[in-house]
């Protein structure tokens, strides 16, 4: 059973992926505080990207563009508004 399991891990690419991550960790000049977090991060990056994640990345990029456009519009509107506001001294009279 052990040989079968080892064969399964080899065929599925698990051994190769784990070996690459361990090599990457061993080559790090400054070892991370948490080797486990390092492994989790690199194993997550090694998996093929889920189509749902790609859609979320596209949505995020789109939302960032909208945010920047709205921020710029807000800035322009504030500038226009200051042109039409009465100075505070005249309002107090």
UniProtKB/TrEMBL annotation:
PANTHER family: ASSOCIATE OF C-MYC AMY-1 (PTHR13168), C-MYC-BINDING PROTEIN (PTHR13168:SF0). It is found in: Nucleus. Keywords: Coiled coil, Nucleus. GO terms for molecular function: transcription coactivator activity. The keyword Coiled coil applies. InterPro entries: AMY1. Belongs to the AMY1 family. Residues 53-80 form a coiled coil. This is c-Myc-binding protein. GO terms for cellular component: nucleus. It comes from Myotis lucifugus (Little brown bat). Transmembrane segments: none annotated.
């Amino acid at each position: 059973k052990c040989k079968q399991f080892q064969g399964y891990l080899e065929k599925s690419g698990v051994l190769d992926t784990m070996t690459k991550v361990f090599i990457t960790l061993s080559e790090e000049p400054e070892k991370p505080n948490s080797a486990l977090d390092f492994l989790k991060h690199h194993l997550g990056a090694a998996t093929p990207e889920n189509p749902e994640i790609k859609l979320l990345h596209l949505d995020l990029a789109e939302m960032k563009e909208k945010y920047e456009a709205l921020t710029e519009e807000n800035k322009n509107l504030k500038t226009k508004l200051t042109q039409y506001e009465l100075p505070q001294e005249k309002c107090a009279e």
